[in-house]
Fold:
Amino acid sequence: MATSAPGELIRSGRTALGIELGSTRIKACLVAADDPTTVLAVGSHEWENEYVDRLWTYSLDAVWSGLQAAYADLVADAQRRHDAAPTTLGAIGVSAMMHGYLAFDAAGEMLVPFRTWRNTNTGPAAAELSDLLGVNIPLRWSVAHLRQAVLDDEPHIARLAHVTTLAGHVHERLTGRRVLGVGDASGMFPIDSAAVDYDEDLVARFDGLAPGVIPPLRALLPEVLPAGADAGALTAAGAALLDPTGALQPGIPLCPPEGDAGTGMVATNAVAPRTGNVSAGTSIFAMVVLEHPLAHTHHELDLVTTPAGDPVAMVHCNNGASELAAWAGLFTRFSAASGTGLDGDAVFDVLFREALTGDADAGGLLAYNHLAGEPIAGLTEGRPLFVRTPDSSLTLANVMRAQLYGVFGTLALGMRVLDGEGVGLDRMFAHGGMFRTAGVAQRFLAAALDAPVAVGDTASEGGAWGIAVLAAYLVSPQAGGGLSTYLDETVFADAATTVADPDPADVAGFAAYLDRYRAGLAVEAAAVAALTVGR
Structure:
């Protein structure tokens, strides 16, 4: 544990700050640099993506106003709790939702609105690149967005000089360095884990597609760095961007910027082979660190890396807990209208615990959480659906169990593919807000995976804490043994976790649910074809 009082740690700058730009919240987390399990202050800012010209996006104005608001909220929390406000820090880390496309010209002017991971308009490019490169290139990967822009002969291609991710862009504005952590970079283009760099042979194949149309790929993409590498320092301009009050001083070192998948692995200590984690938020994805290469290419699986560069199989689903939250919001409003006035957290708790009393197969009910397209399910767009047959059992418990099962439905389809490859798992960790109600979502995920699922004390802090840990790792005297050893010995040595073993009845019930879920995808596809988005 940290040996100094929290206020003294903050005033002296012996801290590490992690900031993560998630899909619905920007979170900031301040920890003690010598003991990242000591969380000193937190801050957050809510935001939402926009659907503009049939593409999901966030404005850069919203990025910076949101970052400033989250940091200001953290400073206020530190002042309130410890009567201390930071003016300097030991280290900073920036993380954000992975993939997508931010394109800039040589002067740093953004050429088109930020295209996020949710967009599924890159089908032709992803298929072409998967065939050319011999590895699965998902629709959301940056290189798929880049190639699709070339195929569509978009006007901005003539001015294109740089492409990056959201974390990479924020880091560059703070430090002046155009770099990316290897985990985030692995969602831009395939990585050679031995070199901890873009795969040179695959880069050459890509460059052969359209020579002269765009700059060579290495000129376009950020430099790749592993966890613990020097990624620059906060400039005066960067300090003013993050903290317009002028209190925060420049010169603070930054760790390599990472994606939310990498910070999720760190937050759950799932960076060693045969470990894995599930992160549930607006999207949901599972990461499994591999012992050996996969035998086959699968469209359901991405090959990415840990922040240290080790190979990982990723099952990524565009749709996570947003539809579940919408249903909870419905009941929250009912509570208010009825005069009982339960707040949102209490409503979630009641509904989740009610789901425990439902039938193991959710009583024949089906819930599709597809607000956006879902490539694993073969869907280019989403239509949330709640479906039942006349003989199903429509109870509140079954409705909520179906909604919780629905969060894990597409994920389970992808995890079945990993099972077929014989991938071994010693432990699977879960994190995200839906796991705050103890023993519910965790139990149902164990049923979906038919494997034990652990949740730790850091589950609700998630990626913001994970990138704070990577920032602390940058300046830690214990970093020399490697990231996995640092996490085992310095961060998680005394961590408390709860483990849910799969219940046989739940496993059988979820399997029956998944059979119906797979068959019912035809209904979902028909809804996409028949129902137009917009009123």
Q: What stands out?
A: The radius of gyration is 22 Å. The longest strand covers residues 35-46. DSSP finds 17 helices and 22 strands in the chain.
